[in-house]
Amino acid sequence: MTDVLSRTVRNCPLIDNHAHNLLRPEFLDLEPFESITTEAEGSALKHTFTSLPHLRARKQLRQLYGCKHTADWEDILKRRAELLQHEPDALWKKCFHGTYAILMDDGLGAPEKVHPFSWHDRLTEAPTKRILRIEAVAEHIIQDLLCNASERNLEAPEFLIDTWALFTDRLEAEIMTATKDPDVIAFKSVVCYRTGLDVEPDYNECLLNIGKPFEHYIVRCIRKRKFRIQRKIVNDFVVLKLLEIISEQAPYGQLTKPVQFHTGLGDADISLLRSNPAFLQPLIEQYPNIPFVLLHSAYPYTREAGWLSTVYKNCFLDLGLVFPMVSRDGQISILHQALEVVPGSKLLYSTDGHWFPETFWLANMQFREALEVVLLANVNSGLLDIFEAITLAMDILFNNSNTLYDLQYQVDLQDRVRSLPQALTLQPKLRKESFRVNIMDRFLKKHASIKFVYVQWLDYMGTMRMRVLPVASFEHLVRSDGRIGISLGHTGTLQNDEMTPTVNKIDQIYVEPDLSTLRRCHNKDPLSAAMVLGFWRDCDGNPVKKCPRTGLQTIVDSLSVRYAISLFISFKIEATLLRRTNDANDPFEPITTTHAWSTLSSEQWLAIPLLAEIAENLSDLDIGVQQFHAKAGRGQFEFVLEPLPPLAAIDALIQARLVIHQIASTHNLRATLYPSPLPGIRTAAHAHISMTPTYDELRFWVGGVLNHIDALCAITMPEEVSYRRAVDNQWTGGTWVSWGTQNCETPLRRVDKGRWEVRCIDGMANMYLAVSAILGAGLLGLMYAQSTEDLPRDCSSNPSQLSAEQLKSYNIHKKMPVDIREAHRALEDDTDLREALPAPFTADYLAMKKVELKLLADMTEENRRVWMIERY
């Protein structure tokens, strides 16, 4: 059950409740990039390269940039410069993946050096909101008032009095304007950096003592032209003036806009002793209608800040800055300390990202990782149940900031997490608010005539297995958080239930319906029924590594979390429609013989009602069909499905195939995916996979997928007949390990930027396993980051018609496997790919396929063809 929590933590949209502007491109070199993991400056900065935060960030930046795992700091900087020069938008998009909104303190950098806060709207789903830094406002007012002042002005007795009056009037006006500005959602003070957090809590007392300090401050401004406020009483006054004004503006009993305070961690400017948030206790008490947000985890005073956030209703703790400024163990310890006493509703998250987009990316990645570790520990120890942990994660990442800052974002977080795609289907027993129960209730209310539910799962051989439950039994199963127990041994049997060495008759797996796949059956089904696909779980409800759907989702999650890569897949279903005959020697014949690609002969025209019936039923099941048309073979047609995230795309594919088979059966036809059902007919199952961002696509597809393609064929082309389909000069992907833009004679066709077609794949494959292997190979390409100069080049010709010298010019050196046995050997030898896939998968799969090979080899060729057509 913990996989649901992990997916939520990794993918829930977040509100970054405190960050700063990015530098404009021309000023990027003014700040040392190594400062992203430290508050050290100057000569102290040179030691950061040996710190744990830096070493960890270096490793993660290699992933972000697609560098080799051996890349040193100079290599990383070089790669970063290339990305900033050629694809800055893609890098920004990757760094801000998952960020819904940013609340920005734009008072850190000089306006001419940073992008304005509104510029950052392009990076997030919601517009950037502004946090008004009160010290910056006060200093700007003074600078404006004294722009033409000189020491001669100081001689006039009324000058200081007038300056004070103008200063306080304008400060009050600026604050009043900000309270009404919808773009300003909070205020901030950096008094911690100036004179410390021990602010005088009595406003009147501060006024009595401000005369001389203010005079000294003004004299210094005029003589040195330095306007930074660094006199305690003056600093205290600015803070108190803000608190006084906004507390008076709020209606009785309502909270004001929050005020953020820098606390704890900072550079050498700060007095660490006076950065303890405990000093703020009198202020928090004095202004109970003002929400105080204690920034930066108050590290190293997290426990003190936690106590304040616990005992004062108007105090909140921000969990920021320590990501990525503190080691992984330190971050986990800080989260544990924060959760010791602080209610989950009082915790907020921020990156404190500034200058560089990578600061946001590192903070988000590291915070999600630490939060997952801490919440899982609490769940595993029994202190939290899954529902409580998921709620806590969503509150910290999104809900608490949305509420505190009155942002009023209307986002269904559970739906968003599920649609990434994630199978958020597990909740505690008998919870009325259970996400699964809600889905089921809505579905059954919409389809009240449903009497039965097919609970389905696909085994390693691509055989659909299922149980039929009366709807009352299905409802009970879901409401009680139940599952269907089956013998573990059934995961190791062949299409005819013949046993293999992988059969284990001792244990069980439990099929758990994934209600994101719940669909009404087509209108020709003999039952008034629905269908739903399932995950495999153990007796405690935890994921089973052998589960094809779980294995795929694990790899998709890894690409999303580690590389911010999102994927969409569109499948083409090629099916040959066969009519049964009375000829025992040739029991099938195609429904059309006058047939060619994308034609509509008289025979084909007569088949149109059947094809339309299939398309209409798929549409009724919310399976989008973009088009259908005739293929080149007799009786062969193709349905193109809409692109969806990987797991959802394959779920739709499996259910769509079932509909095609069944609708055809009602017309006494057999729809088959068999790669060579009749002489001259070649049937594939091409997959179009789109990835964003696109700047690492060559490393993913050429350095990863193509580099492992011979081993992949053992899974994507799983039968001996598969290799009769893939030949040269027949538009079937050819026999050379190569790729090309719009080249149908290569096994990998680059359709467009970021969109690739895998052509060495057919309908015999378990598509969950096939896509897992493809994405796993792509993941290896990103991890090892081979130089693109060493990879096969974009081939603009038919490789089979090139000379040896021409092949060499494209870096084409290897041929595809000639048969299934060669593909099996390649998979056995490819230890990297095997390790990238779920641990028990490849060994079990290969053992089962060897038994299947023997089973099929004992048949005559015609019997084997019929046997497979009846099953695929």
TrEMBL record:
Domain GS catalytic: 548-872
GO molecular function, one term: hydrolase activity
Highest rank taxon of the organism: Eukaryota
Annotated Pfam families: Amidohydro_2, Gln-synt_C
Homology family: Belongs to the glutamine synthetase family.
Protein name according to UniProt: Developmental protein-like protein fluG
Species name: Pseudovirgaria hyperparasitica
